């Protein structure tokens, strides 16, 4: 409870509100702009086979398509081999219980269902499509969905009101021979069960002797009770409550068959009475349902899962006022022990699909819960530590459930679910080599999702002041507002105040609400100090003091960089209105390079779930051998800070001496230099890009120093790296975050000339992250 006492003290101090408040919220207009974007919605369909030639088309459609058609007709299981069925889940809703918004209809639920489909792809590489069914009649819904079985490998039901959801799921499970899973019920229940396992372990209780009160008799509440009963809880030790009070035997008001199944003989009639002496509380109800007096009446070391969203039944701070021995979980990200379905649903479907399960049964749910619970006992990886500001999470009352972006969940939970499916007899395909399966799962992982979320979480705990040099640009204004709104820090826009405010007014951007500062270089009281600083740096390069004054007054890059150099800001963003090279020249005149390091640019390419770092993409046009070795070593260090194991490939037009030339000689010498330095990462070269990235081609070179495909590509020159990364981005084959500058004494990032507001926010967050890393390193010196 020490954490919550500290949080409670922080809340009493208004100056600490920003530090405390890490709960993610979004601006309404920002949300609309995000969903509209260049292409409305969040999904698209991408072909997995080439369609470039007439022969490709003949194979994909007529006449070639007739061959797999006949094969599937003979053996329906061949559909898993020849179509996308085995990796395709339908997210289906009728919109009768949308999040916390209620019954708004099928069409209104579409953004939610698209979002769920995206989460499937992001976290478990499952393809998904949303289907919104415009009926509130359970029978009509059932009759439509049941006939979709040939199309999908699994069905995820979402946002369907109770008790309809019970009827629909039960009937579809009977009628369909593929997994049907209502995540609002079972996803919540699985995470709760994982938390229960660990909370009972910490308090020395058993499932058989623990007294539970569950407030909320909707889909999630009923599912939680049913799962923990299956795991060993006794019916007589569970009291279910709803808005009418305790669900007891003989009660008639507000009852249905699902509530009645959990009614017990008791003389308790109210939640307050039920809480007396209770060991554990589940809240799936509403804010304020649990009072401090009720918590006081609970047994020693009470376990409280207050899961109402967005505000829990009782806050941890309120519990801390009356108990110092409680274990608490909520549904929120700003408290420890978040009950979040994303810990479960992508992975339970991943395991089920990979063994072609016919159903997700109790054994698979319990296996998932146990796997999640066990993961909390293990040492967390460095990437997760980084996401939590260097705090190494350790099993205990404030860490009974893994954090949602723990990359190990994909392998740990999926394997447990697949094994349970095979052992319980519902798998149509058996995986005999689980180690190979684990490698396959790791290959599916999209690490940039957890990496960027980790960066955002890290910066939220160490907010930074960012100066945006091109403050008159609309995209920059939107990025600054988003940066502040996400609690990442403060933002300063450089430009003419009237021009900025007029542009913001036309665009509907509210700068005042977020407290965005505006500075005009010509009117700043710091102009003389900045000019003097610049003069000391440039006086022996032909610059006069008046030249420095002119640049400070008229060039926002110089003004912003001097702000950074003199400690008036933590990081700087520029590049929207001028080319990269020009901006970099300006910056280098003001900000020094770090001693013993080179200034380089690193681009991040994300394509089909793979993340590759490309260097150098900013500075060295024709790097020599020493420079190539330094680029590789610095990039490896940078990549390792993000939680990756670096594997470096030096790229060229040939592979291992096939074609001789100056480039290949420089690379071969760079490889020798790294061997002489005895660096602690895998590397080799020279090699072509396809060899570096393709494990099958790598097998042709068994002497190679890389055991797996490279995740760092060191290019032979700036021209090739810049061209290749920008080509990938424009052709739509990859998402590019580029280039990230490292090697300066201060954190400066230059965005691309055509950068959108979302790109600018990502780069600004990385700049803030880098600023904190520099600050920490300086403290340690």
TrEMBL record:
PROSITE patterns, A to Z: MALIC_ENZYMES
Domain Malic enzyme N-terminal residues, every copy: 40-173
GO terms for MF: acyltransferase activity; malic enzyme activity; metal ion binding; NAD binding; oxidoreductase activity, acting on the CH-OH group of donors, NAD or NADP as acceptor
InterPro entries membership: Aminoacid_DH-like_N_sf, Malate_Decarboxylase, Malic_enzyme_CS, Malic_N_dom, Malic_N_dom_sf, Malic_NAD-bd, Malic_NAD-bd_bact_type, ME_PTA
Binding site for NADP(+): 98-105
Residues binding a divalent metal cation, per UniProt: 158-159, 184, 309
Cofactor(s) the record lists: Mg(2+); Mn(2+)
SUPFAM superfamilies for this protein: Aminoacid dehydrogenase-like, N-terminal domain, Isocitrate/Isopropylmalate dehydrogenase-like, NAD(P)-binding Rossmann-fold domains
Transmembrane regions: none
Gene3D superfamilies: 3.40.50.10950, Isocitrate/Isopropylmalate dehydrogenase-like, Malic enzyme, N-terminal domain, NAD(P)-binding Rossmann-like Domain
Oligomer status and interactors: Homooctamer.
Family the entry assigns: In the N-terminal section; belongs to the malic enzymes family.
Protein name: Uncharacterized protein
Organism: Bartonella rochalimae ATCC BAA-1498
């Amino acid at each position: 409870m020490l954490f919550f006492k500290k949080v409670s003290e922080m809340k009493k101090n208004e100056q600490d509100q920003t530090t405390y408040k890490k709960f993610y919220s979004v601006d309404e207009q920002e949300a609309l702009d995000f969903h509209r974007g260049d292409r409305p919605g969040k999904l698209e369909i991408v072909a997995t086979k080439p369609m470039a030639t007439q022969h490709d088309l003949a194979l994909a459609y007529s006449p070639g398509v007739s061959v797999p058609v006949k094969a599937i007709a003979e053996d329906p299981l061949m559909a898993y081999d020849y179509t996308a069925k085995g990796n395709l889940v339908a997210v289906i809703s009728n919109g009768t219980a949308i999040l916390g918004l209620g019954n708004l209809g099928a069409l209104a639920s579409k953004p939610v269902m698209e979002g769920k489909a995206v989460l499937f792809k992001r976290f478990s590489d499952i393809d998904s499509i949303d289907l919104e069914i415009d009926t509130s009649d359970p029978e009509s819904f059932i009759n439509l969905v049941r006939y979709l079985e040939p199309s999908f490998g699994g069905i995820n039901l979402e946002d369907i009101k109770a008790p309809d959801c019970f009827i629909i799921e039960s009937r579809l499970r009977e009628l369909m021979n593929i997994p049907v899973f209502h995540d609002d019920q079972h996803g919540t229940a699985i995470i709760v069960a994982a938390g229960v396992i660990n909370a009972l372990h910490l308090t020395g209780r058993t499932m058989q002797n623990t007294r539970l009160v569950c407030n909320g008799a909707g889909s999630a509440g009923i599912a939680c009770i049913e799962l923990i009963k299956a795991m060993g809880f006794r019916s007589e030790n569970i009291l279910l409550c709803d808005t009418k009070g305790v669900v007891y035997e003989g009660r008639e008001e507000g009852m249905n068959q699902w509530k009645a199944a959990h009614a017990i003989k008791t003389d308790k009639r109210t939640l307050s009475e039920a809480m007396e002496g209770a060991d554990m509380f589940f809240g799936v109800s509403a804010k304020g349902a649990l009072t401090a007096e009720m918590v006081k009446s609970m047994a020693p070391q009470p376990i409280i899962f207050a899961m109402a969203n967005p505000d829990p039944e009782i806050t941890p701070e309120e519990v801390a006022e009356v108990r110092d021995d409680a274990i608490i979980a909520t549904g929120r990200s700003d408290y420890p022990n978040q009950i979040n379905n994303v810990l479960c649903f992508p992975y339970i479907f991943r395991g089920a699909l990979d063994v072609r399960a016919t159903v997700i049964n109790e054994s698979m749910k319990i296996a998932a819960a146990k796997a999640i619970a066990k993961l909390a006992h293990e040492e967390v990886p460095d990437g997760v530590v980084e996401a939590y500001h260097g705090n190494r999470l350790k099993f205990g009352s404030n860490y009974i459930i893994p954090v949602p972006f723990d990359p190990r969940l994909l392998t740990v939970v999926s394997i447990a679910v697949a094994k349970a499916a095979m052992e319980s007899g519902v798998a149509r395909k058996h995986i005999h080599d689980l180690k190979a399966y684990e490698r396959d799962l790791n290959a599916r992982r999209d690490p940039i999702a957890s990496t960027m979320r980790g960066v955002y979480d890290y910066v939220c705990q160490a907010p930074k002041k960012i100066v945006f040099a091109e403050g008159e640009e609309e995209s920059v204004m939107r990025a600054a507002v988003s940066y502040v709104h996400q609690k990442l820090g403060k933002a300063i826009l450089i430009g003419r105040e009237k021009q900025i405010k007029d542009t913001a007014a036309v665009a509907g951007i509210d700068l005042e609400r977020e407290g965005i500062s505006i500075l005009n270089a010509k009117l700043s009281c710091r102009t003389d100090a900045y000019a003097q600083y610049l003069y000391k740096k440039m006086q022996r390069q032909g610059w006069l003091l008046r030249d420095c004054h002119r640049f400070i007054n008229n060039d926002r890059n110089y003004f912003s960089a001097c702000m950074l150099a003199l400690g008036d800001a933590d990081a700087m963003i520029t590049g929207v209105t001028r080319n990269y090279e020009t901006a970099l020249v300006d910056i280098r005149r003001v900000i020094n390079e770090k001693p013993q390091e080179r200034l380089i640019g690193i681009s991040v390419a994300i394509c089909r779930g793979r993340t590759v770092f490309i260097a150098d993409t900013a500075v060295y046009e024709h790097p020599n051998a020493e420079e190539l070795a330094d680029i590789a070593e610095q990039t490896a260090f940078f990549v390792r800070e993000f939680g990756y194991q670096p594997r470096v490939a030096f790229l060229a037009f040939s592979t291992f001496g096939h074609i001789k030339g100056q480039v290949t000689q420089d690379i071969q010498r760079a490889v020798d230099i790294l061997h002489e330095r005895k660096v602690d990462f895998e590397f080799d070269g020279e090699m072509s890009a396809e060899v570096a990235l393709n494990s099958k081609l790598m097998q042709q070179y068994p002497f190679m120093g890389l055991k797996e495909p490279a995740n760092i590509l060191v290019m032979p020159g700036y021209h090739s790296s810049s061209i290749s990364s920008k080509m990938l981005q424009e052709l739509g084959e990859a998402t590019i975050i580029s280039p990230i500058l490292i090697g300066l004494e201060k954190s400066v990032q230059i965005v691309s000339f055509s950068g959108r507001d979302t790109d600018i926010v990502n780069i600004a967050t990385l700049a803030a992250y880098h600023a904190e890393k520099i600050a920490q390193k300086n403290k340690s010196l």
